[in-house]
Design goal:
The protein has about 450 residues and is α/β, with parallel strands linked by helices. It is built from 16 helices and 16 strands. It starts with 5 loop residues before the first helix and ends in a 7-residue tail after the last helix.
């Protein structure tokens, strides 16, 4: 039956969510997902084969790095597609061209075009497509139809078995690696890095940031194994790590204007290094475009500071490492009297590590949860927070209510910090009237 409304299109996409389908660290099981999306893309005409693309993997900083690469390429006059996940408020945020989310009408049209392919798909051989699979195919078809000059593709989970692994990227980009999704990617940094490094392709340049030793070793080994030149986005230059080449010099200090927080400098170095490497791949991005893109790049829900009295900070930090960096950035960049912490996360996150990083610094804590099915139970969050604080702890089951409570508790010189999950960040932006209209 044809899709005739935007809501029906969304309902169709989301109908492929399977709550019983679980990720697995078993490579044979994980590879099945890659086989499935490969087959679905082939049925769709392999649109990804007609794109010049950058693929970005990593534990944290992927989205911000994508945003900066996209902004630099767009500043160079290129038409740029952007695929990211999850979205904060509107599904349309996942599929953008020149930072404009796909329109409702275009999404409906593409769902109608993909629906027959999905209905005829060989489920017996490959399994039922996922919501993520269908969205990825729609994005690739959209980018091809609009003839983008470059697609910036964020890995959804891991890298080696993600839908993005179907792409041979002009540059493979790996941001900072830390502990997350261990039940799927494996319990060690080596396991996690092995999954992330799976986007590296023979003969195509790869670039990463300084990593912990065990992760760095795995990335280097993967580049050597496949025969890919590997570069390091270091403090002062892009250094050749594996393969011949001279250091590449950043054309500007790697400090984005609109993306705040000291940790964004690392992402900026990575994005700038990617732009420099793209030149060797036939993508002309001038020094001026790099500088302008860096100044204009913006990514919601990542150290997003809303001015006012009190000021409100929204950040999607969702593991211990990113929570620690969040607190460091707050102490360096946001003077405040007290911090009021609004905290909610997902069931698969290390809430103990997040609580350890943030709870000791909070004068008041409000525990909340998003409406996402994977949101962590409130009492579990409370139990993990308790050992790390003597501050009053309240529970507000709805994020919008949690924001209201925080505002009543905060003085004009205090800081309200809303964090723990991108889903919580998205709900907070909606409550504050900052969300993409749908």
């Amino acid at each position: 039956m044809p899709i005739t409304t935007y809501q029906t299109a969304l309902d169709y996409i989301y109908s492929f969510i399977d709550p019983t389908r679980q990720g697995s660290p078993d490579p044979a099981i994980a590879a099945r997902a890659l086989t499935r999306i490969t087959a679905l893309l082939e049925d769709a005409g392999n649109p990804h084969h007609h794109l010049r693309a950058v693929v970005v993997a990593g534990t944290k900083g992927k989205g911000s790095t994508c945003a900066m690469i996209e902004a630099m390429a767009r500043a160079a006059g290129l038409k740029v597609g952007l695929w990211t996940s999850p979205h904060l408020s509107s599904y349309r945020e996942r599929i953008q061209i020149d930072r404009e989310p796909i329109s409702q009408q275009t999404l409906m049209k593409l769902v109608n075009a993909v629906q027959p392919l999905v209905e005829e798909f060989d489920v017996a051989t490959y399994g039922r497509p996922s919501t993520f699979d269908i969205g990825f195919v729609i994005a690739m078809r959209h980018f091809v139809a609009k003839q983008v000059d470059l697609a910036v593709v964020e890995v959804g989970l891991g890298g080696r078995y993600d839908a993005a692994a179907t792409i041979t990227p002009l540059v493979a980009v790996i941001s900072s690696i830390s502990y997350d999704h261990m039940a799927i990617l494996g319990p060690t940094l080596r396991d996690i890095a092995y999954n992330k490094a799976g986007i590296i392709r023979a003969g195509q340049p790869a670039i990463t940031v300084p990593q912990r030793a065990e992760a760095a070793q795995v990335i280097a080994a993967e580049a050597q194994a496949v025969g890919a030149p590997l570069w390091l986005a270091a403090e002062t230059a892009v250094e050749p790590w594996i393969g011949a080449g001279l250091p590449l010099t950043y054309p500007a200090p790697p400090q984005p204007t609109k993306l705040r927080g000291a940790f964004q400098r690392e992402n900026a170095r990575l994005a700038m290094g990617t732009a420099l490497l793209l030149r060797g791949q036939g993508i002309a991005i001038s020094d001026e475009a790099i500088r302008r893109g860096l100044a204009e790049a913006w990514w919601p829900g990542r150290f997003e500071l809303i001015d006012g009295s009190p000021r409100i900070l929204i950040d999607g930090a969702h593991n211990g490492d990113s929570a620690e960096k969040l607190w460091q950035a707050i102490t360096q960049a946001i003077p405040h009297r007290r911090m009021i912490l609004v905290l909610g996360t997902s069931r698969d996150k290390d809430i103990a590590a997040i609580a350890a990083a943030l709870a000791p610094h909070a004068a008041q804590i409000i525990i909340t949860r998003s409406s996402h099915p994977k949101a962590m139970d409130l009492d579990r969050i409370a139990a993990e927070v308790e050992p790390w604080t003597t501050a009053p702890v309240q529970i507000a089951p709805v994020v919008a209510n949690a924001v209201d409570v925080a505002r009543t508790l905060a003085g004009p010189d205090d800081l309200i910090c809303i964090t723990g999950s991108l889903f919580v960040a998205g709900a907070a932006r909606e409550a504050l009237g900052l969300a993409v209209a749908d």
